[in-house]
Amino acid sequence: MGDLDLASLRRQYTQASLSESEAPADPFVLLRRWLEEAISAQLIEPNAFMLATVDETGQPHARVLLLKGFEPPYLYFYTNYESAKAREMELNPKVGATFWWDVLERQVRIEGVVEKAPPEVSDAYFATRPYESQIGAWASPQSQPITREALEARWKEYAQRYPAKEVPRPPYWGGYRLIPHRIEFWQGRPNRLHDRILYVRRGEKWEKQRLAP
After folding, report:
1. What is the radius of gyration, based on Cα positions, of the chain?
2. CATH of the domain at 119
3. Which of 148, 149, 141, 155 is nearest to 84 (CA)?
4. What pLDDT is attached to residue 11?
5. Distance CA 64, CA 62 (A)
6. For the segment 173-202, what is each residue's pLDDT rounded down to a tens digit?
């Protein structure tokens, strides 16, 4: 195999800027604006973010999820409560989350804690999922070893069990809400002089400052 010439890959960022005066006092206002602009730009999965957790040995784990609720001060996502990430969050509720919108040359880094969403919130969201996804939630023993044949057999089994459109939410599946205490907005700029505006929650208020790129 030939060498990958990664060192020479470079891009000049020129799309936008972010100043302290443009950054509102409430970071959720800016986060909503950036999410709306990512959606308007018709990016693939504009609500996708990387969630980082830590296991009992201190080993970090990261994977991409989809943000499915924006209700400040909460950010909602959903998963299997018996999955590896759920077990890690049960052990240590401190997490990191990162959004990356390449076309807009933007990144948002979030640090905070998670807690399970109220059951009625999980029920309401589950009811909005497509039927096939609802059956998939029942069929998948997430993070457990399985063959493709066994997975598809489980899907057919639960589809037969719940043939109607009204599928109950599995007791082992539901939502989490992320409560941020640190949010950093990164806007790419020319010559690697990127804009970084950091918000840190102090009690009920947010403080913001510029960081060196």
Report:
1. 20
2. 2.30.110.10
3. 141
4. 84
5. 7
6. 999 999 999 999 999 999 999 999 999 999
* Per-residue pLDDT, 1: 56
Nearest to 26 by CA among 209, 199, 193: 199
Domain that holds residue 98: 27-129+172-210
- Residue numbers in the chain where pLDDT is lower than 50: none
Helix axes of 148-161 and 131-139: crossing angle, nearest 10 degrees? 120
Backbone angles phi, psi at 137, to 5 degrees: -65, -35
Which residues are identified as catalytic? 192
> What pLDDT sits at residue 33?
97
Distance CA 77, CA 96 (A): 13
From residue 92, alpha-carbon distances to 49, 116, 184, 200 in Å are 19, 13, 22, 21
Q: For the chain, how many structural domains are there in total?
A: 1
Reported as a single tens digit per residue, the pLDDT across 157-175 is 999 999 987 899 999 999 9
152 domain residue, yes or no: no
Please report the pLDDT score of residue 149 as a whole number. Answer: 97
Q: Which residues pair with 53 in a beta bridge?
A: 61
Spatial distance between the Cα atoms of 13 and 78, rounded to a whole number of angstroms: 33
Is residue 161 in a domain?
no
Residue 61 inside a domain? The answer is yes
What global pTM score does this model have? 0.93
